[in-house]
Design goal:
One of its GO terms (biological process) is translation. One of its GO terms (molecular function) is rRNA binding. This protein has 148 residues and is an alpha+beta fold. It has two domains: 62 residues, Ribosomal Protein L9, domain 1; 82 residues, Ribosomal protein L9, C-terminal domain (Ribosomal Protein L9, domain 2). Strands 4-9-8-6 form a four-stranded mixed β-sheet. Strands 2-1-3 form a three-stranded antiparallel β-sheet, covered by helices on one side. A two-stranded antiparallel ribbon has the order 5-7. The radius of gyration is 20 Å and the shape is elongated.
Length: 148
């Protein structure tokens, strides 16, 4: 089945791409969710409009992401966590925990899926975290895990 993507789909493409997928995936997931439209001669003309809008949005998003990057690099983020007497965490610090701590520290609201710890965070102290704002703008910050 040949489709035109209307939004980015992981491992498939970005808006405006023409993709060939299995019939069931296209019919049962991509089309009902609004991620794609059927490809034919009439909709092929829409590709240029979708790509033009995507390019304009990407430039605007990258400029905004660079501003957010500067703001995040200036923050001191402390993530509270429940700790055993030996200093080991009960569980691990997740991306959503970090996103909440960044918001409390005065930073922007981040998507938890954009935050990736370099190593699993299971102890108190400083830890490196990678944040992907856009495909072009990524940064690495250091967070401090403290006892709650």
């Amino acid at each position: 089945m040949k489709l035109i993507l209307t939004s980015a789909v992981q491992h498939l493409g970005v808006a405006g791409d023409v993709v060939e997928v299995k019939d069931g995936y296209g019919r049962n997931y991509l089309l009902p969710q609004g991620y794609a439209i059927a490809y034919n001669r009439g909709t092929a003309k829409q590709i240029e409009g979708i790509q033009r809008a995507r390019n304009a949005r990407a430039i605007r998003d990258n400029e905004h992401a660079l501003q957010l990057r500067e703001q995040l690099e200036a923050l001191t983020v402390q993530v509270p966590a429940n700790v055993s007497p030996s200093g080991k965490l009960f569980g691990a610090v997740t991306g959503s925990d970090i996103a909440v701590a960044v918001k409390k520290a005065g930073g922007p609201a981040l998507d938890k899926r954009a935050i990736t710890p370099v190593k699993p965070i299971k102890h108190l102290g400083p830890h490196a975290v990678q944040i992907k704002l856009t495909d072009a703008v990524k940064l690495r910050i250091t967070i401090e895990v403290v006892a709650a």
